[in-house]
Amino acid sequence: MAMDKFVINGGNRLKGDVTVGGSKNSALPILAAALLAEGQTVLRNVPDLEDIVAMIDLLRSLGCESRREGADVFVEVRNETHSHAEYDRVRKMRASVCVLGPLLAKRKSARVAMPGGCAIGSRPVDLHIRGLRLLGANIELDSGDMVATAARLRGAEIFLGGPFGSTVLGTDNVMMAATLAEGTTVIECAACEPEVEDLACFLNKMGAKITGAGTPRITIQGVEKLAGCDHTVIPDRIEAGTFMMAAAITNGEIAVHNVRLDHMLAVVDRLREVGVSVERRNGSVLVSSARHLEPTDVTTQTYPGFPTDMQAQLMSLLCLADGNSAITEKIFPDRFMHVAELLRMGCDIRKEGPTAIVKGVKKLIGAPVMASDLRASAALVIAGLVAKGQTTVNRVYHIDRGYEDIEVKLRGLGADIQRVGE
Ligand code: EPU
Q1: CB-side exposure of 259: number of CA atoms within 13 Å?
Q2: ω into 307 cis (within 30 of 0)
Q3: What is the model's pTM?
Q4: Strand partners, 160
Q5: Which residue of 112, 138, 210, 239 is 20 to 30 Å from 350, comparing CA positions?
Q6: What is the best residue among 49, 128, 331 to mutate for testing ligand 1's pocket, by most ligand atoms within 8 Å of CB?
Q7: One fold for both 5-21+235-420 and 24-232?
Q8: Mean pLDDT by 10 residues, the chain (422 residues)
Q9: Which residues have CB under 6 Å of ligand 1?
């Protein structure tokens, strides 16, 4: 499994129907939030992904009982004595860091490994720590772990902006901790991502009092306790966008189901600019593209701007546009690992600081490539779908972290893609 690769024979137009799963980045913090609850939490529409398995394993190590039935996951806290999220887990999945806020609020103390760097660059957690300290937590570093304690968290006014704007998981951590704090917390410069709003919606079902999630100012009135609830995760806007790019690059025509287009307006805007048609039809979305693609410029931003998690996939598409495009990465300035691999497929891309200048070429050429992160891998698969000849994408485990059965779904749309064990 771990060493699987994808073998893609490019050239097939994608046609047909595809259904998007639940959002990975919504489900991960919501699972962590189950640590706050008394009683059983039921989470529905949870994608079956390596990252989700890792989070559920982490919850088990923190004393939770958990089982999956299809797309439903049941979690219940049984034992609160072990509150250490170990380095080995955090290193493998950075979202593990969002157990810090819930553990601190519920158990008064926690030990969570400080995440290191990863394939998309350095990813500090200074804002998480700052926010939790302002709530009254004492946090110290010991052997690479953040050791946090707080007899009682108190509501506070917290400005959570950093040099790159707001932070998604940082907002989540502070919001989760504040649910059980004494008094009112205001988070200013909060992340506005739909996943933050989904988490707030979940917490409110558990009994929290949160308003303003989805805007830059979130207000949380602390409550005494939270109870398990039943919640359905929002559709994954990045998975949906990835299929849209795949359809567009193959000059295809697909219907995407279980999609929230209102969460994807920046992506839809760029697709239309490139000449791709994106239309609502009976609750689904039809995507079709002509052979001719226009170049465009894009800058990644926090929501509602163009998401960094779609940057690599859009780059593959723009490699075939009729002219030059500029792609600027404002969230993770080093997130360009896919560039060198796309060059192996005949793309013409030049990097200048946080910007990639993409010159459209007439065709892409199949090649063995490998990627070091999830979205970069998706971009290489997209490129492989249209490349002349065969493309082999190595290290598929990166894709399995965030896309459920991507090759099965693509085959359903007519792509020639196989998973092969190495
Ligand atoms: N930042 C700081 N200090 C902090 C936290 C973040 O300076 O304490 C900086 C980061 O270095 C970055 C920017 O703020 O430059 C934004 O990072 P953010 O904290 O928002 O990222 P995250 O919450 O760690 C989530 C997603 C990522 C996605 C980013 C940006 C999850 C589990 N992960 O990460 O998703 O790229 O937001 O939208 O929700 C992916 O799914 O492939 C993925 C990497």
Answers
A1: 31
A2: no
A3: 0.98
A4: none
A5: 239
A6: 331
A7: yes
A8: 88 98 98 97 97 97 97 98 96 95 98 85 91 98 96 97 97 98 98 98 98 98 98 98 98 98 98 98 94 96 98 98 98 95 98 97 97 93 98 93 96 98 80
A9: 25, 28, 95, 123-128, 162-164, 167-170, 191, 195, 307-309, 331-332, 374-375, 402
